[in-house]
Amino acid sequence: MDRREHIRLLLAGSFGAGLLMTTGCTAEDRELSEEIIRQAGGGYGRNAEEMAHDERLHAETFFTEEEFRMVAVLADIIIPADEVSGSATDAGVPDFIEFMMKDFPVFQVPTRGGLMWLNNQCRSRFGKAFLECSEEQKIEMIDRIAWPDDAAPEMEYGVRFFNRMRNLTATGFFTSEMGVRDIGYMGNRPNFWDGVPEEVLKKHGLSYDQKTLDECIKAEDRNRIAEWDDDANLI
What we know:
Layout: H1 7-11, H2 27-39, H3 48-59, H4 65-78, H5 93-103, H6 108-126, H7 135-143, H8 156-174, H9 177-183, H10 198-203, H11 210-216
């Protein structure tokens, strides 16, 4: 599938709130972010129970080796490498999907069942499992389930499976650093206010007092983390 041509289909899926997560930033932004994280204890706002939960899931394995390889192939069919960025596997999407299987166990049975269904369909049509098929055969099979409006009724189970894989792949890719750069998402970057332009102030016979200039319009303090004294005064 061509990423540019089919981006609307990918975005139509239920990506979840994680799509708004941002990573790509300047070196200065990254350094400041790391300092904030260090001051917060490195937990990204998660408590100890949440971090222990993630560590436990990372230590577990759901997919078999064959299933994981199938997931990787499917992910790269959905989002292949192009002139802008790498493929879904380059962005670590198979690992993301593996994690999601454990974090949302409701995905496990339909996803594993879908992979088995795909293998059975390929054996029936081509006499071999999905991974053993040629690239042309893989795409031929996927084309039968990638377009819900055009799929035959007997492909309904495969359509639902592929819709889920497409949504998971898109979610994993577009919440990765590579995916965020791919769509040019800037994230929650601060806006800098340099005050009312000097020519506008002059036009109206106004000017800033020194206190305002020192506290509100000080370019060298733009990335300084605010500190406050006991009386809620800015230090």
